[in-house]
Amino acid sequence: MIMSGRAGRPAHGERGANGMGTVRYLEIAEELRRAILSGEYPVGARLPSESDLAARWSASRGTVRQAVATLAAEGLVGSSQGARRIVLRHERRHSFGELNSFAQWAEGVGHEARGRFLSRTRRPATPEEAERLALAPGTEVLAALRLRLLDGEPVMVERTAYADWVAAAVEAMPEDCRSVMDALAADSGVVAHYGEHLIDALPAGSEDARLLEVRRGSPLLRQRHVSATRTGRPIEWSDDRYRAGSVTFSVSNSAVAAPLERHPGGGEHR
Amino acid sequence: MIMSGRAGRPAHGERGANGMGTVRYLEIAEELRRAILSGEYPVGARLPSESDLAARWSASRGTVRQAVATLAAEGLVGSSQGARRIVLRHERRHSFGELNSFAQWAEGVGHEARGRFLSRTRRPATPEEAERLALAPGTEVLAALRLRLLDGEPVMVERTAYADWVAAAVEAMPEDCRSVMDALAADSGVVAHYGEHLIDALPAGSEDARLLEVRRGSPLLRQRHVSATRTGRPIEWSDDRYRAGSVTFSVSNSAVAAPLERHPGGGEHR
DNA sequence: AAGTGGTCTAGACCACTCG
DNA sequence: GAGTGGTCTAGACCACTTC
């Protein structure tokens, strides 16, 4: 039931007829993922060989490889040449949106997120902001201070510099806007595509302490990050400080893919 | 000057004659990486099309795609369907070893790392340790307390539970062993292939404070991680606490690849 | 020695971006 | 509408693990 015809195209329909959405290797990945998450393949188990999987789904080996590569990128399975792939974990990985947006993340893990702008002021970018946002030194940015609540509890203070070209849109948002990134996408068509994150710890300053209702000097987990559009244009540079114990970041890596780095000192790039 | 012959094999040599090491797509990736890092392609610039690159290297489009996929995984370039790939950053990404091994990392960034075992005791695994190490409850592990120095300064306290099957090897190491993972690889052939990392912040306990020479309650950056072999067998489960300001973790992600996650609360998996 | 993943080719259609 | 990346096929050789 594979086909013939042109050249490596399914008999007719499959993908030609799908018109939208259906991507073969993602379907295969999704089915495999479900099998893994359901425990059908326990941790440590060996997956069927690529040829077996290809036969089972009437797909080419290349497509199957792309499917398992997806799972490998999620940290669910691992592989080493010559041996069958093995199951590493059973946990589901979150999406990009859930990492870049506090609100999307909270929703994804079943909590209620709120936010309130405490201030929004236009001022010239600091040298660091200008560099992170790829703006000419001194360009005006919108500096925002925002308190984020999770299930009604204050858990994070967010200090964000928005690039000049989105400043007006952010200024126009209501004070209790739930998700700036969602609103930017809906209103202005500005969608974050890339992110870079720097994670460290620091003591709470007096403003941090007051807003988060902790003692001054108590530990905070800081996530600084820049978001950029599909074309690599930076949207915002943010300094988010979480109350200790309120969140944990997790990353999985392997000898063939190491997404996480560690830097000495203050996280300066050079 | 491509070839003919059998079926998609270079004329003769190229890869058949390499015998070892040379992998086409990695060569291409390396050359492109160098061009990016050298500034030949500035941030925001568009890369040549896949066909151009394929022609330039006399390789197939698939091979070129694998090369740029490597760079994309490193966060150097991004892509979106229909548009040329763009350069996102100029920083080099570190290797897996540099993330999993304090000593390898320090060396990679040009600092001098030392370590000293303060204690090594065998005791039954705690429930959490047993789960993380995939051991039967109560199995004996080797619990080690270790102080890590960077350029002579104490920066990290490491509390590690080594799985029973590597305990003897670790016990036999000298007290001032520079890198346990390196020694394990050299002496026992045990190589870490996979890692999972949980990152959060917490206040220094009294032992932490004494060893790191900071005040009790001052902020620490904690990285808990498990390392596993190629077959997915856990080697060690470790709780590493860094003095605030001494290190920063960094991750880059994109809408198509999000290696980092955020969890509410104490970082428990469920 | 058999099996399996890693690499590579050549060619095709589709979805999307850009000018 | 041309160009470009995304998906897919079919088949091949190689390096490595496993039995």
UniProtKB/TrEMBL annotation, chains A, B:
Superkingdom of this protein's organism: Bacteria
Protein name in the entry: GntR family transcriptional regulator
Domain HTH gntR-type: 22-90
Pfam families: GntR, UTRA
PROSITE patterns xrefs: HTH_GNTR
Organism: Streptomyces polychromogenes
Keyword GTP-binding applies: no
Gene3D superfamilies reported for this sequence: Chorismate lyase-like, Winged helix-like DNA-binding domain superfamily/Winged helix DNA-binding domain
Protein keywords: DNA-binding, Transcription, Transcription regulation
